[in-house]
Amino acid sequence: MRGPGFENMATVLVNPAVLDDFELDLMSDDFRVWTVHTTPIFPDAPQAAMQLRRGLFDWSNGRWAAAADWTLVWVTFVERWLDGENPIPWPAHAALWNKLAAYAEQVRYNRGLGGVPRLSVPRESR
Predict the structure, then answer these.
(1) Distance (Å, rounded) from C-alpha 26 to C-alpha 23?
(2) Residue 9 is inside which H or E element, if any?
(3) Which of 66, 45, 64, 43 shows the shortest CA–CA distance to 55?
(4) How are beta strands 31-35 and 6-14 bridged, if at all?
(5) Which one is predicted more confidently, 84 or 112?
(6) For a tag on the chain, would you pick the N or C end, based on fewer CB atoms within 10 A?
(7) Mean of the pLDDT values across residues 52-80?
């Protein structure tokens, strides 16, 4: 479900050692990766990232202890996956979960989508 100025995303902890390759790989399948600690939607993005990470670790009951220093990211869907104002189609969900499963040793996530205010891609001035 998406509203005006809203987009679906998956919250994922990623091993920083693979973050660059992870981002490029997901981009090749029409997903965007946003590091939460640098997103412009929070007045204090590093603090927000810390709080979100803490919630994930509390939820995991220690199962994700190895990921304590990993980078918190949001993965969003680019336009190819979207169908107007309709919910994200199931093939898009499946493609994302399959892609994340390929990184099983390097990522931690809950299988489900959340929502954030629409994130915009920075553009260079001409």
Answers:
(1) 5
(2) strand 6-14
(3) 64
(4) unpaired
(5) 112
(6) C
(7) 88
